[in-house]
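Before the break, one more example. Copy the sequence into your notebook; we will annotate it together after we see the structure.
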Amino acid sequence: MAALLEKLTQRDDLRLAVITVAGFKDAQFTVNGVEYFVIRRTLRSALLNRLQRPGAELSSPSRIQRYLSIVKTWNPDLIHVHGSERDYGMLKAWGLTGIPIIVSIQGLMTPGYRKAFGDLQPDELRRSLTTRLIGLDSEALYRSKRYRRHAPIEEQILRSADLILGRTEYDYAWAWAIQHDLRYSHVDELMRPEFLTSEPWSIQNCLRHQILCTTASNSAKGLHVLLEAVWRLRERYPDIVLNVAADGFAPRFSSEYARFVRKLIERWDLLNVVRFLGWIDAPELVRRLHAAHCYVTPSFNENGCNALQEAMLVGTPAIATACGGMLTTIEAGHTGLVFPAGDTALLAMQVHRLFQDDQLAQQIGSKARDVARKRHDPQHVEDQLLHAYAEVTCRHRQPKTTA
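Here is what the structure looks like once it is written out:
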């Protein structure tokens, strides 16, 4: 979103404003010609979120009225809502504005709650003593409940949108299933410039048998699957290393899933194999991608995985689960390798193939880079988006015919 905003601000024929919810204080300011409206979080919302109560994310009539007030004052030609997981799109769903609304699909709540635990059972993610004492849900259960409760709101938002923007067969299918008279345009994403301008990955310059994974500390992201695959590979590759670029794991294992992961690392004697890097910025991530022998994303549910696409832009040979939108992102065997979600043996086999076959690794990485650079070309993405904007505004301005 930041890359897209930066690109659009370079145009003289667009005037832009951004509305977001953050912090505990309302704010309004202008930067680089873009007017920002920050709506404060309520104390109730912050408390519910801290206590892992799903109501924190549900639609708030008072908050939606704040959106409406800003929209009426600003009076834009169209409203572009990024993501269906928040309530910005309820302006149209509740019939509060006649201004056309475009919704870009990021993730999806409706299918997402079914994958909140990945392939784990709830009792495998043991709750901490504190959690049990005060009666809070586990993180995965909280996520599942939140997604489930928000799914009907998401469906209202997508059903009422004047146009839905997506980028995979997965989000197209779900948009089609929800919006009966589907109005959909394919618009790819702008990526961070560090990845677009990076030097290509090379098998000669990588650190052999090193795997990179960028993930999050929840079971739906599947790090435990990759850990088991690494454990299975260790006998063949004693020097194997797994670098994990993620918050939530190091230096303090605070989350329920992070504790589960740590127990797996201890059980499989991987303490000297797995390295938690924490959050790293774009230049450092590019460096890590160049150094990796391969990149793996073991998630159970993704639409358009930006981290995977960043790896493809660099040209690092990538392996991904055959689920959701990743089958649109990767052409199996051509621009990447895939495995069924949760299948540790097949994941291990795909890593083994890349470790053993330098020609395959280089070929997959090069083809992925070529495809990704075309897909995420800034001018290409801008043209797609502006075409969608023009389509909606022109349709909105057409006079309605009467019988």
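The longest helix spans residues 139-160. Residues 128-136 have pLDDT under 50 and may be disordered. Try to locate both features in your own notes.
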